[in-house]
Automatic annotation (TrEMBL):
HAMAP family: GatC (MF_00122). One of its GO terms (biological process) is glutaminyl-tRNAGln biosynthesis via transamidation. It comes from the Bacteria. Keywords: ATP-binding, Ligase, Nucleotide-binding, Protein biosynthesis, Transferase. The gene is gatC. Heterotrimer of A, B and C subunits. This is Aspartyl/glutamyl-tRNA(Asn/Gln) amidotransferase subunit C. PANTHER family: GLUTAMYL-TRNA(GLN) AMIDOTRANSFERASE SUBUNIT C, MITOCHONDRIAL. Allows the formation of correctly charged Asn-tRNA(Asn) or Gln-tRNA(Gln) through the transamidation of misacylated Asp-tRNA(Asn) or Glu-tRNA(Gln) in organisms which lack either or both of asparaginyl-tRNA or glutaminyl-tRNA synthetases. The reaction takes place in the presence of glutamine and ATP through an activated phospho-Asp-tRNA(Asn) or phospho-Glu-tRNA(Gln). The keyword Aminoacyl-tRNA synthetase does not apply.
Length: 99
């Protein structure tokens, strides 16, 4: 028995402000009906005693601890740069940006 009718799809299309043809309404009605049938099969499965697995990864926000390490001085970093201006890396302008 069909759970979704052409009129149901037309109503949903109006709510979503979609303009659908009669062929699309009929096609979507069949597709949505098939989806609901599959969902019904899934809901019918007996899951008694099955532990939920909403997230198989139990650890959250796993990060390494921050460690202070020596870094290059500004002059050392800029020494290998093809172009530097006022202590910063200089790169070509893009997309017509002005200074």
């Amino acid at each position: 028995m069909s759970q979704i009718s052409r009129d149901d799809v037309a109503h949903l299309a109006r709510l979503a402000r979609l303009s659908l043809t009669d062929g699309e309404l009929m096609s979507f009605a069949g597709q949505l009906d098939a989806i609901l049938a599959h969902v019904g099969q899934i809901q019918a499965v007996d899951v008694t005693g099955v532990e939920t697995t909403d997230n198989p990864l139990k650890e959250l926000n796993v990060t390494r601890p921050d460690t202070v390490l020596p870094s290059l001085a500004q002059d050392e970093a800029l020494a290998a740069a093809p172009n530097a201006v006022d202590g910063r890396f200089a790169v070509p302008r893009i997309l017509g940006e002005s200074e």
